[in-house]
Amino acid sequence: MKTLIVNGFVIDPSQNLESKKDILIEGKKIQGIYPVGEAPSADRTIDASDCIVIPGLVDLHTHLREPGFEYKETIASGTMAAVKGGFTTVCCMPNTKPSNDSESVTEFIMDKARKEGACTVYPIGAVTRGQKGEELTELDAMSKSGCIAFSDDGMPVTNSLIMRRALEYSKIFNVPIIAHCEDPFLAEGGSVNEGFYSTTVGLKGIPKAAEEIMVARDIILCELTGGKLHIAHVSSGGSVRIIREAKARGIAVTAETCPHYFSLTDERLTTYDTNLKVNPPVRTQEDVDAIKEGLRDGTLDIIATDHAPHHSDDKNREFDTAAFGISGLETAFALSLKLVKDGLIDLNYLIKLMCLRPSLIAGISKGTLQPGADADLAIINTEKEYTVDSAKFLSKGKNSPFHSWQLTGKIEHTIAMGKLYNWD
Amino acid sequence: MIKSKDLLGIKELEVEEIYHILETAAGFKDVLKRDIKKVPALRGKTVANLFFEPSTRTRTSFELAAKRLSADVINISVPNSSVVKGETLKDTALTIQALGAEIVIIRHTSAGVPHFLSRESGLSVVNAGDGTNEHPTQALLDAFTIQSHKKKFKGLIVAIVGDIAHSRVARSNIYALIKLGATVRIICPPTLMPSQIEKLNIEVYDSLEKGIKGADVVMALRLQLERQNKGFLPSLDEYFNLYGLTTGKMRLAKSDAIVMHPGPMNRGVEIESKVADGPQSVILEQVTNGLAVRMAILYLLSGVKS
Amino acid sequence: MSKLILDSSDVNRAIRRMAHEIIEKNKGSANICLVGIQKGGVILAKRLAAQIEIIEDTAIEVGTLDITFYRDDLNTKENQPVVNKTDIPCIISNKTLVLVDDVLFTGRSIRAAMDALIDYGRPAYIQLAVLIDRGHRELPIRADYAGKNIPTAFNDLIEVSISEEPDNDRVVIINGQ
Lengths: 424, 306, 177
Known about the structure:
The complex is a heterotrimer.
Chain A: E1 2-12, E2 17-26, E3 29-35, E4 44-47, E5 52-55, E6 57-62, H1 75-84, E7 87-92, H2 103-116, E8 120-125, H3 139-145, E9 149-151, H4 160-169, E10 177-179, H5 184-187, E11 192-193, H6 196-201, E12 205-206, H7 208-225, E13 229-231, H8 237-248, E14 253-257, H9 259-263, H10 285-297, E15 302-303, H11 312-315, H12 332-341, H13 347-362, E16 377-387, E17 406-416, E18 419-422
Parallel strand pairs in A: 1-4, 1-5, 6-7, 7-8, 8-9, 9-10, 10-13, 11-12, 13-14, 14-15
Antiparallel strand pairs in A: 1-2, 2-3, 5-16, 16-17, 17-18
Chain B: H1 15-32, E1 46-51, H2 57-68, E2 72-77, H3 80-85, H4 89-98, E3 103-108, H5 113-120, E4 124-130, H6 136-150, E5 157-161, H7 168-180, E6 183-187, E7 203-205, H8 208-212, E8 217-220, H9 236-243, H10 247-250, E9 258-260, H11 273-276, H12 283-301
Parallel strand pairs in B: 1-2, 1-3, 3-4, 5-6, 5-8, 6-7, 8-9
Helix pairs in contact in B: 1-6, 1-12, 2-12, 6-7, 6-12
Chain C: E1 2-6, H1 8-25, E2 32-37, H2 40-56, E3 61-65, E4 96-104, H3 108-118, E5 125-133, E6 145-149, E7 157-161, E8 170-174
Parallel strand pairs in C: 2-3, 2-4, 4-5, 5-6
Antiparallel strand pairs in C: 1-8, 7-8
Helix pairs in contact in C: 1-2
């Protein structure tokens, strides 16, 4: 089966490509890129006029919830949400039930993804058994089964010695340790950013210091060990500053932020909308500005979604006891495109943030349109406006604070491993 | 005129509405002075008392207020633990509605629950305390009490002493008193000071001596005794030494200052018995006024058509 | 369309006559308390009391009564009526209370007023004095003393403006549509 994408504006930072081209796909691979009108004929043709054609987006931070929380999301529903959002690769976090702390769970996920997944899934293994922060997992066996990184996401590795060991031991396999930076004592019981709004809505706050202290600690341990550290979901301006300083000193740390951290502030909490409840919490305008600057100047390497789908029973309840998380795969690109529309970064750089760099950090051969690469593409109309309707999400998690937002940038088609998805 | 069918917090009230509630409460205070302390204004209405947190005073006050208005009262006390696993909050609300209640009075450990109930049901919701957010009826009865003694709010200095961080009473009082034009000072150890509260245009002190100076009203807050174990304070003795309201400290306030406390008091922790029972204390009056204010609120809300 | 039905002198005459009737019916004014219903009856009660005081040369107790909490239409109103002051100056048990209102219409206010009064005690008698009786009773209630009976259509409006100064009194009927 040959598919030809014609008239699209192709952007692929991996080969410095930014012009109108036709792309031929054969089976699961990209066959070649041609000047417009010069490609050989194919079985079907997609007209990508008015659209950009980019490598499928790569998410380094997804919660697929399977095994154990299938009522929130499954590998099937989560990957469908991914392709709807233009993602063709998702790296799923290990906080499932049981947690992905052994090769058998990794194999289960890999197997399930091959059978039911709409796109490529790479598991992220737990750093410690049961994510309890006590004993290291078998990184060798899990890497061989498919884990591309290790993290106790959702649970911080509180014990500095364990974190040190993880950063040291992971060097054998050259895999990143993805750090969920949160001091559990400072954060205890909190559900929103600590500040003026936590005071006036009466919800317990999580200070920025809870994140920044652990960012600093992990960077210091990274320097000590020479391990590969990736900081997950940076939410505070202070973290950006600490990472910037570390990078200036040549420490090999990478970091991500998520669309909600540059799209939302805690000012919105006055409605007690639990869809705003996320960990780390959305913070202040000052932090939003610092995050944007961090993305612009390269302090923050990538944008990830931290897609955290939840059932309405877990969200439609008291704010204190509602679950943390935002269902983010289906809004991530349009929210990030706003950075381009606002003139902060250019489109090419955004594609780097969402395709190429996440692939490089994960050490996977994705995020590129090079001939021979996997046929993972997104075809996007960057001018088309639409209204977010979370009820229509393909994710089982309808928990989006962006419901009813007017966004620009519509995914028209996604091709994942050669399979074409057309979106209305 | 009351605009909303709910009383969620003082934040949501306009100053005219606060005055209207206070005026109406004055009418009910007269009723409470009669031999027959009951009026038929809410005959045939059902008021549900939904308490997810133990409370005797507020629940009793609301219950009596509703009964004195001739409403029927359902009391539902739900210990928090059983709610976590069992019936969801939403189901509880729908159940109360199905029982035919028009007004629900809710107290909950979690901030925002009254707002949630209001959204999820057609009931008139009265917030009787939600987490550390608000306790609007307490602030209204406090305002009523202050008004009856001081006749005005503008130019008054009101000093609130105690665990501000965990106090919904303090928050509601701050919002109300600021709206009414008083100067609000809060006095507490920095460990019990909520983040950036000074942005509410209040004065912040960590010294009782300084904060109480020249105050017209001194309000002591209840200190939850378990705060000591959580590292907010080294000991209750030290707290009393620094922040306990004593006759000596009261001398720094204006000579005609009144002393208030939302109750229940920890005598010898936040307030000395001599002050609590002394001539400046209006603490029992607050309880009586609470009844009049809650009658006013139930009466006024029952007239708002949603 | 509006029409003047009583002017100042008419009102004064009516008040004088009613004062005499009250004294006559009660064989003096010893045990009487006048209670004006908020808001229309309050000034009329004061005027009646002043008149009785002139005739009897003794002080008459006057109170005001707010009937808001006793109304039977609280459920149908758009917003709760404003609560006015109730001030009953004496212990009403065994007293003769004369309820005073400006206009007697359906009788529902008087029912509410009687319920309210009884919550203050057990008067020996409750009597009713009104300046205008316009008919259309919906309850078995009648006035003991009426300044003037005026036949009206149900939709008509009666506007009574009287003040503590007797010179500017007037009662107007406005035809309803």
